[in-house]
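In the design runs reported in the main text, the only information available to the sequence generator was the tokenized backbone. The following block is the verbatim input for one such run; it is reproduced so that readers can re-run the procedure and compare outputs position by position.
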């Protein structure tokens, strides 16, 4: 598998044709949104977006392992005063390809600056849609647990009788909870709303997302040594996150400029990690480096 830990220039639809079936563990990517990145990707029109993207998701489906996950960071744009439906249409067409629309995460942009338009307010969120090939897939929930939070101090100190049993929803939703399960715990599972600031420096890319975003999903859906694919690698953020978490990566981009940008950035990260690891070593009596 000589594609591993490589940044490859080309259209991912064509490049992936040379990849073996069931060969990657996670696909995490943010493709160009409709009418954006015209100089690089041609600025795909909203009405043409689904037809443009579906051949790519067909290849994604083939190369993803049965236990793998595909996370798609995408958002519809406003056309003629209303939200276009190309994301919804894409989801439905992907289901016809065999994808399971398993979950949807919301990235809340904590540092979004104010704004107002005649008929709407500033967008401060983006969706990350989870697709899978099968209902059973690899998921490591403990890797993204968070501190229990201040709510537990009063809530868990004053448990009612219903807090100590699985209390079924009063509205008949089928959901239930047992609050007492969290007594004494330092960490809890997060929600599907992810609160992160946007990238402050754009790394010469028009739509760079923060490093913490792919990091979070790589932790959740992979283990060390797994392969992470970003078919629109851009400035290389997904690959950087994979390297720092001891995963392998594959990056693809149609832009040679972005590929070169990614390669340079990854070389710097790899050198930095090599320096850090060497400093952790200690010397034995023969002067050979040993892990510390």
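Verbatim output:
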């Amino acid at each position: 598998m000589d594609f591993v830990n490589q940044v490859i220039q080309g259209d991912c639809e064509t490049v992936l044709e040379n990849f073996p079936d069931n060969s990657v563990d996670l696909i995490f990517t943010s493709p160009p949104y409709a009418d954006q990145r015209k100089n690089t990707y041609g600025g795909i029109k909203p009405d043409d977006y689904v037809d443009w993207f579906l051949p790519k998701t067909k290849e994604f489906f083939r190369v993803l392992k049965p236990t793998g996950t595909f996370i798609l960071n995408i958002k519809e744009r406003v056309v003629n005063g209303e939200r276009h439906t190309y994301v919804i249409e894409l989801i439905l067409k992907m289901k016809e390809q065999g994808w399971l629309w398993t979950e949807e995460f919301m990235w809340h942009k904590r540092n979004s600056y104010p704004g107002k338009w005649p008929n709407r307010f500033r967008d401060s969120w983006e969706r990350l849609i989870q697709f899978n090939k099968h209902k059973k897939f690899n998921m490591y929930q403990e890797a993204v647990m968070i501190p229990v939070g201040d709510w537990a101090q009063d809530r868990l100190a004053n448990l009612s009788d219903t807090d100590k049993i699985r209390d079924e929803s009063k509205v008949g939703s089928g959901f239930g909870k047992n609050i007492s399960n969290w007594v004494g715990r330092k960490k809890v599972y997060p929600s599907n709303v992810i609160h992160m600031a946007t990238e402050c420096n754009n790394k010469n890319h028009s739509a760079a997302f923060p490093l913490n975003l792919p990091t979070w999903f790589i932790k959740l859906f992979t283990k060390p040594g797994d392969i992470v694919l970003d078919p629109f690698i851009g400035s290389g953020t997904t690959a950087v996150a994979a390297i720092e978490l001891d995963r392998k990566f594959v990056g693809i981009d149609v832009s040679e400029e972005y590929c070169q940008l990614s390669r340079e950035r990854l070389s710097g990260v790899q050198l930095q990690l090599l320096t850090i690891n060497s400093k952790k070593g200690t010397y034995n009596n023969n002067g050979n480096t040993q892990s510390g």
